[in-house]
Amino acid sequence: xxxxxxxxxxxxxxxxxxxxxxxxxxxxxxxxxxxxxxxxxxxxxxxxxxxxxxxxxxxxxxxxxxxxxxxxxxxxxxxxxxxxxxxxxxxxxxxxxxxxxxxxxxxxxxxxxxxxxxxxxxxxxxxxxxxxxxxxxxxxxxxxxxxxxxxxxxxxxxxxxxxxxxxxxxxxxxxxxxxxxxxxxxxxxxxxxxxxxxxxxxxxxxxxxxxxxxxxxxxxxxxxxxxxxxxxxxxxxxxxxxxxxxxxxxxxxxxxxxxxxxxxxxxxxxxxxxxxxxxxxxxxxxxxxxxxxxxxxxxxxxxxxxxxxxxxxxxxxxxxxxxxxxxxxxxxxxxxxxxxxxxxxxxxxxxxxxxxxxxxxxxxxxxxxxxxxxxxxxxxxxxxxxxxxxxxxxxxxxxxxxxxxxxxxxxxxxxxxxxxxxxxxxxxxxxxxxxxxxxxxxxxxxxxxxxxxxxxxxxxx
Length: 461
What we know:
This protein is mainly alpha-helical. Helix content is 77%, strand content 0%. The chain has 28 helices and no strands. Helix 17 runs antiparallel to helix 18 (301-313).
């Protein structure tokens, strides 16, 4: 039941005017169907409900309006009422495909996707235009993580309607999930034999070759996509990415620039342009585009990371810190921001701030070995050996075979006067990798000079 409708439709205007004035105006059933469909597609369920209610009052025998009522009931999870109405309709019109589709929708929402598929397959036999139903079956198989059958049904959809690009994208999604890049390319080439100017198919071929790192073939595919539609922004963006991989940064910039002229600037295009200028050594233009990128989309973490890393590479830690602080103010739960915040403050010898950064990084679930080690070294610098021991003991749960952790725990315990624990961790560390004993020499000179320590190191070396 698809009714194309624009918001300026006279029937819609009359209906909304009627609601404001409380006057009762007559509409034919087709008008009510169009109005209800518009509100459902717009997500205005309350208005859709009103339209269906008034429509059924004026046209009580309208099957389509009853089906819209069922659709609304399903949306509101009122499955018993929806099923009761569907049973009534089925007795009147047992060959109506929409009844099976709505029944399938109920089963789908109840996570009974196999039963939903069975009903949709019944609907196919009743339909003169089964493309949409094949697509619905494909979605049910996706819910079941059955990508083989999902792919098959999306293909069947395209056999009926080769302009259903949503189904084409879903076919490729299934190929990608199954890691069947060669099979995807073969399928797309067959599709292109019948539809040689399908820009979406060429675009998808290019992406498959890009994933296979066959950049020249990818470039040719994106060129064909552009020939098929010279205003296809996605093809220019992907072509730019390929040209970057080939080291052709000026050509990549030309393609990204075209996207800015065809449509509103995207943060992705601005970010890639910044990267290209960065590679070309045009610092001023690089920072200009990175800045435009984060202005265009302040939530794009890659933009803030790019601008921060730009300044870090140039050892301008103050500006790097300024930008990472801005990023954290926007999204304080982004672990990538806190990692950089910690490292930059560490470089600047702002140890308390660095410790906060490393701690926050761990709290957000980043358990990289270097994060644990850096935080331990910072705590040692801050004169908090007990906190450093707790930190490294936690780290040991994740990295029990790390010589770097064991040597640090040995040094900390010896320094704290706990020779038994110091000896235990020293032996563990030496068994794992004695070459890291330099950690004791650099960070724990007191422990390193102890006779039993030098004796054990000599023994294992």
